[in-house]
Design goal:
- It is found in: Cell membrane.
- InterPro entries: Collectrin (IPR042944), Collectrin_dom (IPR031588).
- The chain crosses the membrane at residues 146-170.
- Its main location: membrane.
- The chain is an alpha+beta fold.
- Helices cover 49% and strands 12% of the residues.
- Among the domains are: 15-129, Alpha-Beta Plaits (2-Layer Sandwich); 144-178.
- It has seven helices and six strands, in the order αβααββααβαββα.
- The strands form two sheets. The protein has a four-stranded antiparallel β-sheet with strand order 2-3-1-4, with helices on both faces. It has a two-stranded antiparallel ribbon with strand order 5-6.
- Strand 5 and strand 6 form a beta hairpin.
Length: 224
């Protein structure tokens, strides 16, 4: 009985070895960069992490198909390296000697990629399924609509232009008033005119102007 059990286990092990090997049909290679992602907080990849990986793949398969009965034992890992790379396959739970088509495994991984990444605190760049294209995260929508942001920018430019025109207009008006005041001050100064080429002061037309020569004569010939 014991020999029969050992024989069965050895046969199963050989079958699993044939199913999970590099470049086998429906096999996928995984490369993990824990140190790159977490730095000093990096954790060691051990049997517990392998168990978690199998559990997450089984979870992805069950979630992908509501009728799936995939168990952790159906996820096989092989060729595990110290730099954390390995191959895995998912066996058919009903037969256990054939693998699930790669297209189904790929679809399940893509659908649950974020859940798998979060389980290991990694991202698409540090947890790579080499034959499975990375899923693009949904675009982040800004809390403020784009049209409102553009409208705000245009409005700010318009307000800035109006303020500039007002300030420049005030400065030009002040400069013009200053020039006008200086011109009036110059006009209020005593005007100097030229008569026969000799400069003399302008006459005060209201008060008149007395010639000194005639003023002396008037005093000399004043009647008694």
């Amino acid at each position: 009985m014991l020999r029969a059990l050992l024989l069965i286990l050895s046969v199963v092990a050989i079958a699993h070895a044939e199913l999970c090997r590099p470049d086998a049909q429906n096999a996928f290679k995984v490369r993990i960069s824990i140190k790159t992602a977490l730095g000093d907080n990096a954790y060691a990849w051990d049997a517990n992490e392998e168990y978690l990986f199998k559990a997450m793949v089984a979870f992805a398969m069950r979630r992908y198909s509501s009728k799936s009965t995939t168990q952790i034992s159906n996820v096989l890992l092989c060729n595990v390296t110290d730099r954390v790379s390995f191959w895995f396959v998912v066996t058919d739970s009903s037969k256990n000697v054939t693998t699930v088509p790669g297209s189904e495994v790929e679809a399940a991984i893509r659908m649950n990629r974020n859940r798998i990444n979060n389980a290991f605190l990694l991202s698409d760049k540090t947890l790579q399924f080499l034959k499975i294209t990375s899923t693009l995260s949904p675009p982040v929508e800004p809390s403020t609509p784009v049209w409102l942001i553009v409208f705000g920018v245009v409005l700010c430019l318009i307000v800035a232009g109006i303020i500039f025109l007002i300030v420049s207009g005030i400065q030009k008006r002040k400069k013009k008033n200053k020039e006008s005041t200086e011109r009036e001050n110059l006009e209020e100064k005593v005007e100097v005119t030229l008569e026969n080429g000799i400069p003399c002061e302008a006459l005060d037309l209201k008060a008149g102007h007395i010639n000194g020569v005639f003023a002396a004569d008037d005093e000399r010939f004043t009647s008694l």
